[in-house]
């Protein structure tokens, strides 16, 4: 490897948008993108693997083994090509975060994606009644593009940890433009359905689609189960250091 | 190096099975494979060393020094070539786990091994009366192949940490098929003879051999001593951080 | 990358001095150099990025995203070319510290800088009434060059952690000469204006300039806000391990 | 770099012995070799630096800066060429330990050194009245060579952490032979003069020299001061994680 994006077929895209939602606080990013993929009939076209992910292998419910990997989806919405990156794992080291982000940006260059939307959670550290969706952008002009979707730019998010920030911060230097959507979430919920729904409502407006929310609870529960698998480790190992490491792996905002 | 598999002689194998049992919870994997090697007169044919193992050097009972390394064994059972990997050490970083797993899979490719059995422990976090052996497989069809050996596929193991999972999860992508056998163990026993015996009984059926269990206690005690050597460090250094690191190195399920 | 210094235009400098002030205890180095840049109308000519910095992306007050990067400034003072390196981030690993320091020294070689001044804080661990500025040098002869600027060489600083030490210790081996200026600071203040002012007064004499201190409070407050952004993470993640890591990243003397 | 051994002049040695004593428990190895170098008029002929050492720069008593580096000494004793490696720093990661050890072994190959003596401390975790010197060897035949020097081979040292073990464990595979001498020490003394003297008395017999012990207290005090410099950091940073890391860096047996 060390970080490899495998795409099954050759891609022929026109001005695609890249949407990212990986594991993070409240699993908001992962759940949003996963739900979009299901609901809008996206096709899974590839995977992302890396030496920098935690060295875990998931045991699926049917007892088959799947390496920790992120997935790449493709769909066409209102004549616009969309590529989505979704999954349960971020890097386990600083160097790994940068390497994976640069590799995804190389991929964006290869497929001609100039616009990027990243999705994550913002942990408030307290109960959240009506979760807002906070935005952070590559440039002031982008804020205007996204001004009519109910995104709040009145917040005090100071930084984004992990890929959701890096793709935009580093991407900006390659001429990409885009927005990070951060669903407000308590921070202590493993999977937050309310925050996920809030971000989905924004995405509905951005993509000009109608989403069916009836299966959102299933999706959230599904992700809850994956998280439980990954968290089980804690109990079974009884290793404080280990569980801390895992928490920090998965606890990122991005 | 950085990760090197040294084989003494040229190998000429036919469709060999690769069996792995390295350090982990209850030392089940290491003890099973070590016991199989002894009991079935396997020949030690090589070693695996890596920059990614902990930087420890073992002082043997005769006061000679041995670098931390894993061993490669060869044997022929019922006209089937078998290569086994056994040892006291796994990688000390995420990147190291992936590198070692890929290097072992390269070796599997080189010797034409298409079938892999990995052995580890599953820490229940509680007393275990009658340890079961849980299975996780590369694909549903493999589950059928292993259905008559007393392996339980009715469990809630969510993930495998370390090489026992990676060899199968990553190996699957290279066309390998196989099974992870996880002996149920409390998780707080350094070396668990009951769990080791449970897995050995499964291996006995898989390999169609008769094992002599009379020396199992010796084997378990021997591994207990190695673990004590590696654990001694804790006491002698009095460094909490150090001992935690070591625990997590050795505490993996795989 | 892995560590990249990007300079916008070709540089044509004569015997420039290199001044470094990155994140560290009391944010003394970063604030001094940032203040010098503002007050002496330095021009921002480039950036330093690295895979070894923490994987954070800053959300600016106008909600635009900036990758964690350090800045390179140029100015001419009394006919002397000066290049300054300033910023909020140091490496997150031992290897990263060495790599970034060597890369900056390569850059010093490229632009012909033979003299280096590094600025940091020295955490006393107690209240500091009248902060002194401690000096450490590449060689005894340098101490004489800097003897008339109010720098104290009567201190018990035992070592410098991070770039402020490495640039001089490693630079010395490349024939560079220079001094580390360490502003005495309690160590528990995020941004220490008194210590910053003490070092600025020394720099005023070294550079033979008149500084306007009226905006120092603004500058310190600005850095306080950046630090708060970077510290916010703590609260929002509620991850002890994470916050510890961050503390050690930013808590270095250098 | 990443790990570089710089030798000032070309070496022309005949069958030299390599002696290693780096930072570790009770600073026994570093102090022994440093004392031998002083007492037997060894010449400093080079340095070892590495990206893998902690990123610290030492402020000497005369306020000059020295990068963390280990030193290479040469001397001739009873017509036998001896090369010694001494210093205050070991690697800060598993990978770094292996890399530095292999680089030193490459150097041993280059100068034709087939025999290696490594010196360290063995932390007993309790008061030590009469410190013994424990030995661990590359092979049984070596134990005989060293049987008449008062070295105890009746001990329960289970493993050696760091370079003192790796040089012999890995060196053995390159055909080197040698011994690790471990001075018994409580483990909570920063610099242990009694243990150092015990090992020096063994070295006196091995090298067939007469050592003048009158300056041993000065030597131990000197190392105590370096350690204090390196420990000062703890207090000044008030960072628990940082100090733990440092402890584990320096706390190794080897």
Summarize the structure.
Chain A is an alpha/beta fold.
3D architecture notes:
- The structure is a homotetramer of 254-residue chains.
- Chain A has 254 residues and is an alpha/beta fold.
- Chain A contains seven helices and eleven strands.
- Chain A has helices at 28-39, 94-111, 140-145, 163-172, 193-207, 216-237, 240-250, and strands spanning 3-7, 17-22, 43-50, 56-59, 65-67, 70-77, 80-87, 115-123, 133-137, 159-161, 177-185.
- In chain A, the strands form two sheets. The first copy, chain A, has an eight-stranded mixed β-sheet with strand order 1-3-6-7-2-8-11-9, sandwiched between helices. In chain A, strands 4-5 form a two-stranded antiparallel ribbon.
- In chain A, a hairpin with a 5-residue loop joins β4 (56-59) and β5.
- In chain A, α1 (28-39) crosses α5.
- The longest helix of chain A has 22 residues, at 216-237.
- Chain A is globular.
- In chain A, 57% of the residues are buried.
- Mean pLDDT of chain A is 88; it is low at 233-254.
- The interface between A and B is large, with 37 and 47 residues.
- β4 of chain A pairs antiparallel with β10 of chain B, so a sheet runs across the interface.
Which residues of chain A form runs of ≥5 with pLDDT under 50? Answer: 233-254
- Taken as a percent bin, the fraction of beta residues of chain A is 25-35%
Radius of gyration of chain A: 17 Å
How many helices of chain A? The count is: 7
Task: Summarize the main sheet of chain A.
Answer: 8 strands, mixed
Distance between the termini of chain A: 24 Å
Structural class of chain A: alpha/beta
Major sheet of chain A: order of its strands?
A: 1-3-6-7-2-8-11-9
Could you spell the SSE succession of chain A in H and E letters? EEHEEEEEHEEHEHEHHH
How many β-strand stretches of chain A? Answer: 11
Helix content of chain A: 25-40%
Oligomer: homotetramer
Shape of chain A: globular
* Mean of residue pLDDT values of chain A: 88
Largest interface: A-B, 37 and 47 residues
């Amino acid at each position: 490897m060390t970080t490899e994006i495998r795409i099954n077929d050759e891609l022929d895209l026109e001005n695609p948008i890249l949407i990212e939602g990986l594991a993070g606080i409240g699993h908001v990013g992962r759940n949003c993108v996963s739900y979009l993929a299901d609901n809008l009939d996206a096709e899974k076209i590839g995977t992302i693997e890396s030496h920098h992910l935690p060295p875990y292998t998931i045991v699926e419910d049917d007892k088959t083994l799947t390496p920790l990997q992120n997935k790449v989806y493709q769909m066409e919405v209102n004549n616009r090509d969309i590529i989505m990156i979704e999954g349960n794992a971020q890097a386990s080291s600083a160097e790994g975060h940068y390497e994976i982000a640069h590799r995804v940006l190389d991929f964006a260059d290869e497929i001609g994606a100039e616009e990027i939307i990243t999705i994550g959670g913002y942990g408030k550290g307290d109960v959240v009644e009506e979760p807002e969706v906070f935005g952070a952008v590559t440039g002031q002009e982008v804020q205007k593009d996204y001004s009519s979707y109910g995104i709040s730019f009145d917040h005090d998010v100071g930084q984004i940890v992990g890929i959701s920030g890096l793709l935009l911060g580093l991407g900006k230097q390659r001429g990409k433009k885009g927005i990070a959507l951060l669903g407000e979430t308590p921070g202590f919920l493993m999977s937050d359905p309310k925050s996920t729904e809030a971000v989905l409502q924004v995405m509905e407006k951005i993509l000009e689609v109608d989403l069916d929310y009836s299966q959102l609870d299933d999706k959230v529960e599904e992700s809850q189960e994956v998280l439980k698998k990954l968290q089980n480790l804690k109990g079974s190992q009884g290793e404080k250091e280990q569980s801390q490491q895992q928490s920090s792996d998965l606890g990122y905002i991005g």
